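#random but structural
TW: two for the price of one
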Amino acid sequence: MDKRTLILDATLELMKEDKNDIVSVNDISKRAGIAKGGIYYYFKSKEEILDALVDRIYHDIIVNCNQVISNSNENALDKLNLLFHTYYSFSSASVIDTYLHAPNNAAVHQKSLAKILLELTPLLTAIIEAGINEHLFNCDYPKEYAEIILSAFTFLLDPGIFKWSQEEIYIKIAAISSLIENSLNIKKGSIILK
């Protein structure tokens, strides 16, 4: 295993132990079995380590979403629901989310949201375009709608940004579902967000 991967794995292990926002370079160095100076050979700062870890974790989530959708023989509407379900099931299991929600990690959290938006937009755009071709959706701006839908889904429902009650979350999910249905001109109740 290369040392970059070893450092990232050690960081992730420390986060799993509930150290979250207090993981230090010293902690990472000890866990990885690499001198602190060796850590700085691969990464300039703790923030750079976190950026690389966020990149890796969200890259894996997005790869999983792409694989699930590409292996599906369903129509575009079913793939749309499958995408949201798949993304949520992988991202809600992410250890790094707790860390990202710590106040002093706002910059890394912002980068993670941007990464999700930028990397999932092509997949969601392709699903919307397929739905247009299948005569299931009617939409003049597939890419822009994809960006808006993902922005609402990832930002508004992010528990690190907003502390909604369970009832408020259900209402927001219903509103996002309705927004998607109205935007794509599909029947009410077609979008099932959980």
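TW: number two ↓
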Amino acid sequence: MADARLTADLRGDLYEQFARVGKALGSGKRLELLDLIAQGERTVEALARAAGLGLTTASAHLQTLKRAGVVTTRREGTRVYYRLAGDDVAVLYVVLRGVAQRHLAETERARAAYLGAETEAVGRDELLARAEEGGVVVLDVRSPEEYAAGHIPGALSVPLPELEQRLAALPPDREVVAYCRGTYCVLAYDAVRLLRSHGRRARRLADGMLEWRAAGLPVAVGAGD
């Protein structure tokens, strides 16, 4: 009997360790921060601004993620940078979203309300083939910092707020494929709507940089390709 109780206690301890990760991910704001960190390492201040959080609140959420082992930090002078603890964390986040999308009807309603009307999309395989042939302009509409941290090789950095002013610089005879952070990032949707309103042929990548990294596809870093 004593051995059985000990085995149960040890099993319980093991499952509690698994639960630490689940508890850390049990917050919409922490998932939003994780989504941002998946684009590349960032400071606490940058993450707070991007997530619309106060510095103290953002720091508390990030410490929860760090204690659960899903993010790590490095210090550079007085600045602390957060990054994913590993590529498997990005995969876990993608799987979590997929489960919610498939099994919670509320997820689809929230997605549609946030992203708006559907825009035509292209898959990763088609994009790779078209880009290799030179038949498409690949547009990264995220922030310059996110682009520098990692982007699709050959992609041009044109943040969404600058897109309308920079339309003339895009080849008028080539289709544009826009991408942003991931499947649920609205920036690529808005970019396609803007491009089409100006008579340009445009589609979006069906997912984004998060899924691109999780699939192990090539990633370029730096401000220029």
